[in-house]
Specification:
single chain
Length: 115
């Protein structure tokens, strides 16, 4: 996690906002946890965990967002807007590693105030 652009407090605030969006959104909501960001004006990419809700299940993947491939300027306050649709295989047909959790687990995590 790079702390050159965001502080720990900024990461935590972003994560709370993005997890809240996922819980409060509909059954097909997509969100994203930024895991490492440097100044987007001087960077080529950032690391994140896209979150894909499917009913009560949330799928988590690891991803890189290439800033120079975006159709518009990256908005750090709305990182979910730049997440690609969920895919379970890559361009070579290999399975994409992902983890599963539930909306209930994320709600409980947010209730504990762990962030």
């Amino acid at each position: 996690m790079s702390l050159s652009h965001w502080s720990v407090v900024q990461y935590e605030a972003s994560w709370r906002r993005c997890l809240g969006l996922l819980v409060e959104g509909g059954p097909d909501t997509t969100s994203c946890l930024v895991t490492s960001i440097t100044d987007p004006a001087n960077s080529n990419f950032l690391f994140c965990w896209p979150l894909y809700r499917s009913g009560s299940v949330i799928y988590v993947q690891n991803s890189i967002i290439f800033l120079n491939e975006l159709a518009e300027e990256f908005a750090p306050d709305e990182p979910w807007r730049f997440v690609e649709p969920r895919s379970t295989v890559d361009e070579d047909g290999q399975a994409i590693s992902e983890w599963r959790t539930t909306v209930q687990d994320v709600e409980e995590f947010l209730r504990t105030g762990a962030l």
